[in-house]
Every structure is written in C-alpha cells, then in structure tokens.
C-alpha cells in the first residue's frame, strides 16, 4: 500500500514526459553516507549540500529536467502523512493508507530507493552520491547511470576537507557533472530533419559469337540492358531523444530489356533458322508513409524511426538516422515480341505478385540507415543546424547515389 501511495505522489508531484523521459527526463539523486558516529551529522550535511548543489545545477542547465532528491521524496511522503492525519482524505482506503505512513515507512521507502532501483523505472537517470568521512577529509564519489542502457555514464571522485572546506570541491564537482551530463543530451533537441535519396543503377551487357546451321554461317547477338532508379523523400520531425515522427514518399522504377538476334534459333519442331526477339519488363512502385509497427505491437514509443545525436569533445557532432517505410505497392508488365523462322509473338501482360517478388531489387519496406557529419556544434548550443549532400559511386554494383540531409534542431 505504501508503494502504491508513493507512486501516486510521484506521479502528481513531478512533471511527466514520454516513457524513459524522452521529452521530460526524470532524475533521482540518492545518497550513501559512511562515517564514525561522532562525525556523522557533519558528513550528512556535506552530503545534503552536494545533493542540493547538483540538483540546482541540473535545474539551471537543463530546464526540461525534473530532478528529485531522497529528501524531496521524504518531504512529500511526510506531507501526505500529515494531510491524512488531519482528515484531508475522505476516501476510506486512501485515508487508511495515509495513517499507515509513519517514520518507519518513510525510512523503509528511502532505503528501497538505494537497494531496489528497479522499483523506480520512471526515472531515466540515477545520480548516486557516496560520501565517506576519513578523519579530517571527505571522500566524495558521484555516479550517473542511464537507465536506458543500464550503464554508468559518468564517474567523478573528489577529496575535500570537512565543514566549509568542502564547499569549493562540491561546487567544482557539481559543475563538472553538469557539463558531462550535457553530452548525454538531457534536454532533447527537436525539430525538422529532411533526408533525400536518389539513385540510378545501369547495366549493359552484350554477347556476340558465330553460329552455323543449314550449311551457312550466322551470328548470335544478345544485348541485355537494366536500369533502376529510385527517389526517396524522408520528412522527419525529431520530438525527443531519439523519438521521431514524420512522413516519407518514394518512387521506384525498374526496367529490363533483352534483345536477341539468333541466326540458328531452334524451333519446337526441331527446325533451325533466324529469329529476332525483344523482351521488356517494367516494374513501378510508390511508397507513402513511415512505419509505426513498433507502436502497433504495443511498445510505448515508435522506434521505427529514430534520430540520435553523437557529440564529440572536439566541438563537433554526428547525426545518426534509422527509419523504415511502409511496404511498397509494386505493379509490373512484361512485353514480348518475336518474329522469324518459327513463329510470331506479340504479348503484353501484367506480372503476377509471385513474379514480381522474384524480380524486385529492393525490399518492399525501404530502410533509412545512415550517419552524417561531422557538423560543428556542442551540446551547450541552443540550436543545431546543418546541410550536407553526399555523392556515392559503387563501382561494384554500378549504382550512383546522391544523399542529402537538412536539419534545424533546437532545445530549451
């Protein structure tokens, strides 16, 4: 019951964002103090001062964030207990639960924060402070863990004196932590990101050799030509870290032509003679829409499109984009013409779905996977914008591509 009430209090007291705090990151600051009993109070004051200084630095640097300390949670729980004792609640179950919140329950919940962090999954980041008093010195360790990756992202150590002598190192430690947290993109950059892709692939093969039949010389000549072209327009909008929405459209055109001149073509009857034939196959497809399959499968966020910003410490950053389109709708035709010693052919028919599946060069759902940069900028900038065009020429596949990116992102 206490845990249910605690969850309710945190839900009401702290502003919420998307799951894992993509838009409104929640940060929990916990403390652990070790010191002989005669100096415990002084070390505890240093611990509280460090927690408050870090909390203030986070609020100043990251206005989107919602940091809370253990002391904040205790105060909220105590306030709820006092309201219940004063008859603030009229609901019988809630009133009864309120009477159960005593000092023992407060201490138990505080210990749970440190011992069972899995119970607080709404928090995106945990900042854990460990303060140890050793004689006239104070050892301070700060760990910042990202719950999304379950890895410690930042580790800081400081040794300071006691009392007022700890104030300077505490301020330095808090400043360093806030600067390093900026590289985690606490407040997400949001805004439009456009990616355009156009590609052309051409292939032209010719086969030529002599043939002999009916007591005369002839030739076999075959020309196979393929051409595939695509255009893609991804109009994305980054709404969090790394959540992305938007639209995409694409067109695909595939053309295959096989021309053959055979001086000794074998007819079904066994007779041989000259024959000319042309077979042309065309495939066209349109794609319209960004996949949201992950949300349809019950996930709280749509991860079919994500935009990640990777900040380097040399004043540059990279933009990494992953996306998936809806399935494309293909249609195709095959036309055959032939004349010569055997027969005459002149057909123009639609391809079946099975035939199309054996011919298409691309997946029905188009992927977007790329990393662009480096662009000049730091996580301390309020705005990040850039524009770049890349030309690619794959000599192995003979595909030429032009990829462009244009973005304008801002944060609070």
N-to-C span? 38 Å
Number of domains: 2
Number of helices: 8
C-alpha geometry: rod-shaped
Overall number of strands: 16
Main beta-sheet annotation: 8 strands, antiparallel
Output the radius of gyration. 34 Å
Low-confidence segments, ≥5 residues, pLDDT <50? Answer: 1-23, 89-103, 113-119
SSE class: alpha+beta
Could you explain how this protein is built, in words?
The structure is a single chain. The protein contains eight helices and 16 strands. The chain has 412 residues and is of the alpha+beta class. The chain folds into two domains: 181 residues, 3-Layer(aba) Sandwich (Rossmann fold), CATH 3.40.50; 220 residues, no CATH class. The strands form three sheets. The protein has an eight-stranded antiparallel beta sheet, with no helix packed on it. It has a five-stranded mixed beta sheet with strand order 2-1-3-4-5. A three-stranded antiparallel beta sheet has the order 10-11-14, with no helix packed on it. Helix 2 links the parallel strand 1 and strand 2. The relative contact order is 0.11.
Compile the SSE list and pairings.
Layout: H1 2-13, E1 26-34, H2 40-61, E2 66-69, H3 70-85, H4 92-100, H5 103-115, E3 125-134, E4 137-146, E5 151-160, H6 167-182, E6 191-213, E7 216-238, E8 244-266, E9 272-288, H7 293-296, E10 305-311, E11 316-327, E12 329-340, E13 345-350, H8 353-359, E14 365-376, E15 383-394, E16 399-410
Parallel strand pairs: 1-2, 1-3
Antiparallel strand pairs: 3-4, 4-5, 6-7, 6-16, 7-8, 8-9, 9-12, 10-11, 11-14, 12-13, 15-16
Helix pairs in contact: 1-3, 2-6, 3-4, 3-5
């Amino acid at each position: 019951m206490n845990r249910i009430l605690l969850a309710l209090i945190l839900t009401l007291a702290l502003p919420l964002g998307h799951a894992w705090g993509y838009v409104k990151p929640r940060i929990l600051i916990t403390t652990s103090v070790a010191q002989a009993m005669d100096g415990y109070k002084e070390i505890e004051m240093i611990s509280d001062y460090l927690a408050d200084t870090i909390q203030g630095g986070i609020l100043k640097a990251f206005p989107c964030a919602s940091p809370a300390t253990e002391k904040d949670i205790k105060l909220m729980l105590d306030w709820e207990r006092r309201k219940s004792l004063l008859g603030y609640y009229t609901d019988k179950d809630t009133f009864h639960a309120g009477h159960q919140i005593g000092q023992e329950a407060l201490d138990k919940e505080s210990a749970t924060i440190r011992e069972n962090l899995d119970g607080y999954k709404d928090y995106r980041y945990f900042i854990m402070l460990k303060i140890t008093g050793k004689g006239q010195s104070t050892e301070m360790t700060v760990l910042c863990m990202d719950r999304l990756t379950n890895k410690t992202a930042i580790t800081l150590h400081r040794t300071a004196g006691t009392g007022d002598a700890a104030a300077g190192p505490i301020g330095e430690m808090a400043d360093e932590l806030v600067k390093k947290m900026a590289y985690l993109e606490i407040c997400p950059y949001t805004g439009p990101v456009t990616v355009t892709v156009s590609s052309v692939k051409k292939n032209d093969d010719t086969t030529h050799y002599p043939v002999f039949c009916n007591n005369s010389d002839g030739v076999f000549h075959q020309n196979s030509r393929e051409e595939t072209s695509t255009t893609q327009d991804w109009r994305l909008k980054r709404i969090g870290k790394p959540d992305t929405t938007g639209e995409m459209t694409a067109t695909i055109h595939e053309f295959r032509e096989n021309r053959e001149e055979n001086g000794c073509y074998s007819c079904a009857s066994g007779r041989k003679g000259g024959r000319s034939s042309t077979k042309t196959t065309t495939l066209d497809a349109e794609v319209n829409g960004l996949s949201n399959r992950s949300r349809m499968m019950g996930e709280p966020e749509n991860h079919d499109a994500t935009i990640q910003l990777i900040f380097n410490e040399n004043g540059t950053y990279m933009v990494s984009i992953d996306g998936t389109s809806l399935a494309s709708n293909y249609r195709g035709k095959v036309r055959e013409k032939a004349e010569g010693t055997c027969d005459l052919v002149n057909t123009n028919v639609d391809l079946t779905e099975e035939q199309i599946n054996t011919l298409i060069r691309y997946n029905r759902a188009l992927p977007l996977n790329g990393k662009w940069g480096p662009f000049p900028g730091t996580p301390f900038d309020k705005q990040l914008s850039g524009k770049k065009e890349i030309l690619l020429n794959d000599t192995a596949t003979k595909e030429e591509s032009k990829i462009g990116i244009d973005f304008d992102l801002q944060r609070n």
